[in-house]
Write a structure and sequence with these properties.
Elements: E1 2-7, H1 13-22, E2 26-32, H2 45-51, E3 59-62, H3 69-78, E4 82-86, H4 93-106, E5 110-113, H5 120-123, E6 131-141, H6 142-146, H7 155-158, H8 162-177, E7 182-188, E8 196-202, E9 207-213, E10 215-227, E11 232-236, H9 253-269, H10 276-305
Parallel strand pairs: 1-2, 1-3, 3-4, 4-5, 6-9
Antiparallel strand pairs: 6-10, 7-8, 8-9, 10-11
Helix pairs in contact: 1-9, 3-4, 4-10, 8-10
């Protein structure tokens, strides 16, 4: 039994809750949210942390706005809890490194929940040849996506815009198939709260291009892989699955992704040879790559603006 607390009852909480309830390995011990209308068992994080310790709780799931991830995760690790944190792990590389070091010291899981890696299209993708290049699209309307969660429209709380929020999932997927990703070029429509982005990355065998858009009229989320044998394979994360009617819904693919993600975590939790070093590092490596893209954009803008035409 994994005694679990879910911190934050916002948009993604329903996917966590159903996945936890369907899996008998998990026991929901606490639900925390400041909004009493969401029926939490605790209205404040302070009250929750006073109530539980490592003798009464095993796992904390952090589904709070991005800017709260670091402080809450750090406190949870000090209390001796294992952690699943919604992506991104933190807002800065320095914060993520602190969490990583503390997780190894405490010998606790620090899992960054990149839910797209559990999508059926990715899980079933068995290429007959090495992927050489890829093009990914992550296009959505952020107002529809975020519903009533206004923090998505605050760059301080998000940590940026679509690059920080959506590229984290896409970059994680690319890291599953390509190693040593190197940023080549990035274009953001604006420097602080970017609504769309175009990214070009290199790896040892070829290039990767990524389109992100928070102002798209509909929704498209897919990857096209180009294989060494000349084959082209398209993976649609939003494709309808006739074995699962929920995939017709808006965000319907997330039901399966969260179920699979928590199931795989439970296996790692009971694995006698826990690999904290590799698993806990994934969220840090992702943030390093994200911030290298922001830095490349900043450098490109400053270099261009310094050119003299006299």
């Amino acid at each position: 039994m994994i005694r679990t607390a879910l911190l934050g009852l916002g948009n993604v909480s329903r996917f966590y809750l159903e996945a936890l309830q369907k899996n008998p390995i998990f026991q929901i011990s606490a639900l925390v949210d400041k909004d009493p209308k969401k029926n939490p068992t605790y209205l404040s994080l302070k009250q929750f942390f006073l109530e539980f310790d490592e003798n009464s709780l095993d796992l904390v799931i952090v589904a709070l706005p991005n800017h709260l991830h670091f402080e809450v995760a750090k406190r949870a690790l000090h209390k001796g809890f294992h952690l699943i944190v919604e992506k991104p792990l933190a807002l800065t590389v320095e914060e993520s490194e602190q969490l990583y070091t503390l997780s190894l010291k405490r010998e606790r899981f620090l899992v960054t929940f990149f839910h797209r890696r559990y999508n059926k299209a990715i899980q079933h993708f068995k290429p007959r040849s090495l992927p050489i290049c890829a093009h990914a699209r992550y296009l959505e309307n952020i107002s529809k996506h975020s519903a009533n969660e206004m923090w998505y429209e605050d760059p301080v709380k998000v940590g940026g815009g679509c690059l920080m929020d959506n590229a984290s999932n896409v970059l994680d997927l690319m890291s599953l198939f390509f190693s040593s990703l190197v940023p080549l070029n990035v274009h953001l429509n604006q420097p602080i709260f970017e609504q769309n982005a175009h990214i070009l990355l290199a790896h040892s065998r070829g290039n990767i291009s990524i389109e992100l858009d928070w102002q798209y009229a509909g929704e498209k989320k897919d990857i096209t892989f180009y294989l060494e044998n000349g084959e082209r394979v398209e993976l649609d994360f939003l494709a309808y699955d006739d074995t699962d009617p929920r995939t017709k819904e808006f965000k319907g693919s997330l039901w399966h992704e969260y179920e699979v993600g928590l199931e795989l975590f439970s296996r790692e939790f009971f694995n006698p040879n826990k690999n904290f070093t590799q698993i806990n590092r994934e969220g840090v490596s992702n943030l390093i790559l994200l911030h290298s893209l922001y830095a490349l954009h900043k450098f490109s803008r400053s270099s261009f603006s310094s050119i003299s035409y006299r």
